[in-house]
Write a structure and sequence with these properties.
This protein folds into two domains: 75 residues, NE0471 N-terminal domain-like (2-Layer Sandwich); 255 residues, 4-Layer Sandwich (Double-stranded beta-helix). Helix content is 25%, strand content 27%. It is globular, with a radius of gyration of 25 Å. It is of the alpha+beta class. The longest helix has 16 residues. The strands form six sheets. Strands 6, 7, 8, 9, 11, 18 and 20 form a seven-stranded mixed beta sheet that branches. It is built from nine helices and 20 strands. 32% of the residues are buried. The structure holds N-oxalylglycine, 3-carboxy-N,N,N-trimethylpropan-1-aminium and zinc ion (2 copies). One zinc ion (ZN) binds next to strand 5.
C-alpha cells in the first residue's frame, strides 16, 4: 500500500513522488533519470512532509530513507489527480479551410523566427501548410526540410520527380487524376510528413485536392459508428512492387489510441492489396470503406487549390489526404520528398523556448 499525500488539493502517491525526485542522486544535470523505477520500493512510505516557500519537501521513511523537494510549478504541471485541461492543439477542418491560416511566405519563414514558428505550429494544428515564393529551382525542397528536420530517403530517392514518365512505375508519374490518399501505406513506418514543391504547373488540370482525414474519420464515427469500428478494427494490406522494390505492410485504415483518439489514417486506392477480412465481414467492410471514401472525397471535407510555380505544401501524411484532380494537360513538374514530424515538433519547441526567453 502506498501513502497518499495531498498538496494544494492534488493527491500524489508516495511511489510517484519518490520516482520523480529531482535530487542529483535521482536526476543527471541533463534532466535524465538516474535511478531505475522498477527497482524502487513499491511500498515506500512518507515519514514527514511540509509545504515550503517554493513548493513541497518530503522525507521518505526507513529503510528507504530519502529526501525530495518539488517546486510548486513542477507539481502543478504534472498533477494527475485533477489535471488542468491542456489547450487543444488540433484544429480539424473541412472544405471551408481558411488558406490564410496555413499560408506563409518562404522569404519570411527563412528570415524571421516568429514566422517560422507560426509555420511549424500551423502544421501541428492543421496538418497542412502552404509556402509561397519558394524559388522554382530543383532541389530547393531539401532546403525547406532543413528548416525543421531530416529528409526520409526511400526507394523513390532522396527526393522524387512528380512528372509524366515513359514507363511509370507508379500512377503518380502519369498525367492521370489521383483520388485522395496518404503516401506509402505499404511502408513500416510510414513517412509522417510529405512535401510537394511545384516547379511547373500544368496549363490545365493537375489541381490539388486535400482532406483532413481526422475530420473525415470523426464524421464517419459520428454518423456511422459501426462502419467506423470496421475500419478501426479490420486489418488490410498495402503493397507496392516494382523492379527494385517490394514493399508490404498491413494495418487498419483508421488507427485510434487506447483512449479512442484518432491518430492515423491510411488510405491508398492504388496500393490496396486484395482485402482479406473474414468472409462474413467482407460485404460490410466494403460498405464501410466506400462510405468513408465518399466522405473523404465529398464536398464537406475536400478542399481544392491549384498550386502555382513556387508553391510548396507540407503536410502530415498520417492525417491529411492529398490527391490530384483532372487529367493534367501540358508539362507539369513537382518535386516531392518525405520527412518526419518528431523533428518538426522538436524544432518548434526549441524555437518557442528561445523566443519566449
Ligand atoms: C503523389 C501525388 C500529387 C500531384 O505523387 O503521390 O499525390 O499533385 N501527387 O501530382
Ligand atoms: N511517389 C510519388 O505512396 C504512393 O505510392 C504514392 C509516391 C511515387 C513517391 C506515390
Ligand atoms: Zn532523489
Ligand atoms: Zn501522393
Amino acid at each position: 500500500m502506498q501513502d497518499i499525500l495531498t498538496y494544494k488539493n492534488q493527491r500524489f502517491h508516495s511511489l510517484w513522488l519518490r520516482d520523480n525526485c529531482q535530487c542529483p542522486e535521482c536526476r543527471h544535470e541533463n534532466g535524465q533519470r538516474l535511478h531505475e523505477t522498477w527497482q524502487l520500493p513499491a511500498d515506500v512510505k512518507i515519514a514527514e512532509s511540509r509545504e515550503t516557500d517554493t513548493g513541497l519537501w518530503v522525507r521518505f521513511a526507513e529503510p528507504h530513507a530519502h529526501e525530495s523537494e518539488f517546486i510548486d510549478a513542477y507539481l502543478t504541471e504534472h498533477a494527475y489527480d485533477q489535471p488542468a485541461a491542456k489547450p487543444e492543439t488540433t484544429s480539424l477542418w473541412g472544405s471551408d479551410l481558411e488558406l490564410d491560416s496555413i499560408s506563409f511566405e518562404y522569404a519570411d519563414v527563412i528570415s524571421d523566427d516568429r514566422t517560422k514558428l507560426a509555420w511549424l505550429d500551423a502544421l501541428i494544428s492543421h496538418g497542412i501548410t502552404k509556402l509561397s515564393g519558394v524559388p522554382a529551382q530543383a532541389g530547393i525542397i531539401l532546403k525547406a526540410v532543413d528548416l525543421f528536420g531530416f529528409v526520409r530517403q526511400t526507394n523513390y530517392g532522396t527526393l522524387f520527380e512528380v512528372k509524366t514518365e515513359e514507363k511509370p512505375q507508379n500512377l503518380a508519374y502519369t498525367p492521370m487524376p489521383l483520388s485522395l490518399h496518404t503516401d506509402n501505406p505499404y511502408r513500416d513506418p510510414v513517412p509522417t510528413l510529405q512535401l510537394l514543391h511545384c516547379l511547373v504547373q500544368a496549363q490545365e488540370g493537375g489541381v490539388t485536392a486535400l482532406t483532413d482525414g481526422f475530420e473525415a474519420a470523426r464524421i464517419l464515427r459520428e454518423e456511422y459508428p459501426e462502419k467506423f469500428a470496421l475500419l478501426n478494427e479490420q486489418i488490410v494490406r498495402f503493397r507496392f512492387a516494382s523492379e527494385d522494390a517490394e514493399l508490404e505492410h498491413q494495418d487498419t485504415m483508421i488507427t485510434t489510441n487506447t483512449r479512442g483518439e484518432i491518430i492515423k489514417v491510411r488510405i491508398n486506392n492504388r496500393s490496396s492489396a486484395p482485402f482479406q477480412v473474414d468472409f462474413d465481414i467482407m460485404p460490410a467492410f466494403y460498405d464501410a470503406y466506400q462510405t468513408f471514401m465518399r466522405i473523404v472525397q465529398g464536398d464537406r471535407c475536400k478542399r481544392t487549390l491549384k498550386l502555382q510555380s513556387g508553391d510548396l505544401i507540407l503536410f502530415n501524411n498520417e492525417r491529411v489526404l492529398h490527391g490530384r484532380e483532372v487529367q493534367a494537360i501540358g508539362a507539369r513538374h513537382l518535386q516531392g520528398c518525405y520527412a518526419d514530424i518528431d523533428s518538426l515538433r522538436s524544432t518548434a519547441a526549441v524555437l518557442r523556448n528561445k523566443l519566449n526567453g
